[in-house]
């Protein structure tokens, strides 16, 4: 290695000496000096050998390492891209499932609301019908009581009037008996359906 360095340092001096000799003797720019051509070829081969060991091998190794690094980075990026796509698809499926669940829950709530409304209407109608029936019974009872009271009073007035007309005295016991008989006949005819 040391010899190669000494040769490289002495080579320019040799080349400049032979170039000086060529310049003194020849004026033709296309003229070739065989010694200079040989030394140039030897220097080229020496530089080629030295650079292949010292520079090209590390440069090629560095380029190979960089290429491997870039290839690995591309592969890692592709894996991450594929993972991201899978995660995106999974999240989109979850979102679609959640949207379906929300629609299903809304439909169920709507059905529940309709059922509750229908039940409330049915309960209100049943309560209204029961209240109307109770009110009708109360009215019938009040009407029957009013008719009885009216019949008793009318019968009492009729007996008093008849007693005056006939001039006979009717005792309260006899009056009650007559009223019962009148009510019996009056009840037999039945109250008015109005």
UniProtKB/TrEMBL annotation:
It is found in: Cell membrane; Endomembrane system. Residues 1-22 form the signal peptide. InterPro entries: ATP_synth_b/b'su_bac/chlpt (IPR002146), ATP_synth_F0_bsu_bac (IPR005864), ATP_synthase_B_chain (IPR050059). It comes from the Bacteria. Keywords: ATP synthesis, Cell membrane, CF(0), Coiled coil, Hydrogen ion transport, Ion transport, Membrane, Signal, Transmembrane, Transmembrane helix, Transport. Residues 60-152 form a coiled coil. The keyword Cell membrane applies. The chain crosses the membrane at residues 38-56. It is a single-pass membrane protein. GO terms for molecular function: proton-transporting ATP synthase activity, rotational mechanism; proton-transporting ATPase activity, rotational mechanism. One of its GO terms (cellular component) is endomembrane system. CDD domains: ATP-synt_Fo_b. NCBIfam families: ATP_synt_b (TIGR01144). F(1)F(0) ATP synthase produces ATP from ADP in the presence of a proton or sodium gradient. F-type ATPases consist of two structural domains, F(1) containing the extramembraneous catalytic core and F(0) containing the membrane proton channel, linked together by a central stalk and a peripheral stalk. During catalysis, ATP synthesis in the catalytic domain of F(1) is coupled via a rotary mechanism of the central stalk subunits to proton translocation. PANTHER family: ATP SYNTHASE SUBUNIT B (PTHR33445:SF1), ATP SYNTHASE SUBUNIT B', CHLOROPLASTIC (PTHR33445). Belongs to the ATPase B chain family. F-type ATPases have 2 components, F(1) - the catalytic core - and F(0) - the membrane proton channel. F(1) has five subunits: alpha(3), beta(3), gamma(1), delta(1), epsilon(1). F(0) has three main subunits: a(1), b(2) and c(10-14). The alpha and beta chains form an alternating ring which encloses part of the gamma chain. F(1) is attached to F(0) by a central stalk formed by the gamma and epsilon chains, while a peripheral stalk is formed by the delta and b chains. HAMAP family: ATP_synth_b_bprime. This is ATP synthase subunit b. It comes from Botrimarina mediterranea. The lineage of its organism: Bacteria, Pseudomonadati, Planctomycetota, Planctomycetia, Pirellulales.
């Amino acid at each position: 290695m040391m010899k190669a360095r000494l040769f490289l340092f002495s080579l320019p001096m040799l080349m400049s000496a032979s170039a000086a000799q060529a310049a003194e003797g020849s004026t033709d720019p296309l003229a070739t000096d065989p010694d200079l051509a040989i030394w140039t070829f030897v220097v080229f081969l020496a530089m080629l050998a030295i650079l292949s060991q010292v520079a090209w091998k590390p440069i090629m190794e560095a380029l190979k390492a960089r290429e491997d690094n870039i290839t690995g980075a591309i592969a890692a990026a592709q894996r991450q891209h594929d993972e991201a796509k899978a995660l995106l698809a999974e999240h989109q499926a979850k979102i679609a499932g959640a949207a379906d669940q929300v629609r299903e829950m809304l439909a169920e709530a709507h059905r529940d609301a309709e059922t509750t409304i229908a039940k409330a209407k049915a309960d209100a109608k049943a309560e209204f019908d029961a209240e109307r029936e109770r009110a009708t019974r109360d009215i019938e009872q009040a009407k029957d009581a009013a008719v009885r009271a009216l019949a008793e009073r009318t019968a009492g007035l009729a007996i008093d009037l008849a007693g005056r007309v006939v001039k006979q005295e009717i005792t309260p016991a006899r009056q009650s008996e007559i009223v019962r008989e009148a009510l019996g006949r009056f009840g037999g005819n039945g109250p008015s359906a109005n």
